[in-house]
Specification:
Blueprint lengths: L4 E7 L3 E8 L5 E8 L5 E2 L1 H14 L6 E8 L5 E3 L9 E2 L7 H11 L4 H12 L8 H11 L1 H6 L2 E3 L1 H9 L14 E3 H4 L5 E2 L3 E2 L1 H8 L7 E3 L6 E2 L5 E2 L3 E2 H8 L6 E6 L3 E5 L13 E4 L5 E7 L3 H10 L4 H10 L8 E3 L16 E3 L8 H25 L6 E5 L6 H11 L3 E4 L4 H15 L12 E4 L5 H20 L1
Parallel strand pairs: 1-5, 5-14, 5-15, 9-12, 16-22, 22-23
Antiparallel strand pairs: 1-2, 2-3, 4-7, 6-8, 10-11, 13-14, 16-17, 17-19, 18-19, 20-21, 23-24
Length: 480
């Protein structure tokens, strides 16, 4: 019996991961990985080189029938008329456009920020912050007008990689009109609406004109073919791909602890949060993916482990030896500024330090609780928008921590389901590739996921204390 294989790619902030899976069962056949360079701006060619290396590490694609690429959202990739990259891509975690984000919101409100935020939320489902592509385009037009003038087309990281995989045009020259994206990634630009499509008026407001944009494909629409005739799926933003990878459906909330922390739900209805806390994104199945994102997640745990001279397992062991609430010690984990709440200039803080809690164990647990409290605030924001929560699925590199898994249900106040460690963004891309290949109305039902459920007594006072310190830090920062 012949086995049909599909490939899924996760081109994340830190690395490129490739999985090759059986299209029918989802069984993992092989996989590969290659690192990305650090920083908040990257030459896209580095992604291509990492993709090539990861594919080689996975044994190549000669026997693969279809491939889809998922990648970090929001990045700004500018191309000139010949298809060349104009400047290094600005990534989602680049906060230099924070003033431009605030300016765009005020402009749409006639000078009033709150009115502008409401208008943006109604227009595209989200209020722009420094992560969004639209704010980066305003920054480019303001700070690098020559590069802005050279820009003929704007796309996202997964769009660019998919475009590079396409068969070359007969003329041998790049065809910018073949750029394509999907609903999920387009919804993170700030100029595409899940209900209205592209809002070119908002793009022009930010950039001063209307460069070429990728065609937004339906969830099962083909983006083209590779030179070898391999089918290309439309791809997805990383969070939408992760939701597809864990087979999340309406009522499921996914909490992902990676470079960023994200809390998102698959929903049959879109959201329009004028506070900007909840981004009204689309998912990769034709539904919606209301999402809350924090800039600080797993790397906070990495930094704390390094500070304590230990590794991830050592940090977890220390954290589990300390009491809930850490005897008043609180870590506000804004090590790289923050997106939710929108405080791009903020820094981290340790509060409530006493002789009684001056131990490595207390600091380890305070770091874990700080990260989880920020994500719990995101969960609360989702429910305030009417999002139904039936279960929480915990994924990402941070979910491999025993301390995170055991403390999370106490902070969230509900049981937490943890799938076995895996590359769920790449898996979601692979599942999409299999779906496109099949032509069926629903994605294939892969049953290879094993899960474990964690439960704990809720500790609401930990969140209350965190909220108190979070606002205290904010007040001191604003008055500085």
């Amino acid at each position: 019996m012949t086995t049909t294989l599909v490939a899924g790619v996760d081109s994340s902030t830190q690395a490129c991961k490739v999985v090759i899976r059986d299209a029918a069962s989802g069984a993992l056949v092989r996989e590969g990985r290659a690192p990305h360079p650090p920083g908040t701006e990257v030459e896209p060619e580095a992604w291509w080189q990492a993709l090539s290396a990861a594919v080689a590490a996975a044994g190549g694609l000669d026997d693969v029938a279809a491939i889809s690429i998922a990648a970090q959202q929001h990045g700004m990739v500018c191309l000139d008329a010949a298809g060349a990259v104009v400047r290094p891509a600005l990534l989602w975690n680049d906060t230099r456009s924070a003033p431009d984000a605030a300016e765009l919101v005020r402009e749409l409100g006639g000078g009033d920020y709150e009115a502008g935020a409401k208008s943006w939320a109604e227009a595209v489902g989200s209020v722009p912050v420094a992560s969004f592509t639209v704010t980066k385009l305003r920054w480019l037009a303001r700070c690098e007008p020559e590069n802005a003038a050279r820009t003929a087309a704007v796309c996202l990281p997964h769009d660019w990689l998919t475009w590079r995989l396409r068969a070359p045009e007969e003329s041998g020259s790049p065809d910018l009109t073949s750029l394509a994206t999907d609903r999920s990634d387009a919804s993170g630009t700030g100029y595409w609406s899940p209900s209205q499509g592209y809002r070119l008026d908002l793009l022009e407001r930010a950039f001063g004109r209307r460069p070429l944009l990728p065609l937004v494909l339906d969830p099962t629409e083909r983006a083209g073919f590779t030179p070898e005739g391999r089918i290309l799926g439309p791809g997805a933003g990383d969070n939408a791909a992760a939701a597809l990878g864990v087979a999340a459906g309406p009522g499921d909330v996914v909490v992902s602890i990676g470079t960023s922390g994200t809390v998102f739900a698959v929903s049959d209805h879109g959201t329009h949060d004028p506070t900007g806390t909840v981004a009204g994104f689309a998912d990769a199945t034709g539904r919606f993916l209301p999402l809350v994102c924090t800039l600080n997640a797993a790397r906070v745990l990495d930094a704390t482990a390094k500070l304590l001279g230990t590794d991830a397992a050592g940090l977890a062991a220390r954290a589990l030896r300390a009491p809930a609430g850490c005897a008043g010690l609180v870590v506000v984990p804004y090590l790289e500024g923050e997106r939710t709440p929108n405080r791009p200039e903020a820094t981290g803080a340790i509060h409530g330090w006493t002789l009684a809690n001056s131990t490595p164990d207390h600091l380890a647990r305070a770091a874990v609780e700080g990260v989880l409290c920020g994500l719990a605030d995101g969960l609360e924001a989702l429910t305030s928008q009417g999002v139904e929560v039936h279960r929480i699925i915990l994924i990402g590199g941070g979910a491999r921590s025993e301390a995170v898994r055991r403390i999370a249900p106490a902070i969230f106040g509900v049981p937490v389901v943890v799938p076995a460690p895996g590359e769920y963004v790449a898996d979601g891309a692979a599942r999409q590739a299999a779906w496109v290949l099949s032509g069926e109305p629903e994605p294939p039902r892969w049953t290879h996921l094993a899960t474990e459920t964690y439960e704990a007594e809720p500790t609401p006072w930990v969140r209350d204390r965190y909220a108190e310190v979070r606002e205290l830090v904010a007040a001191r920062t604003s008055s500085a």
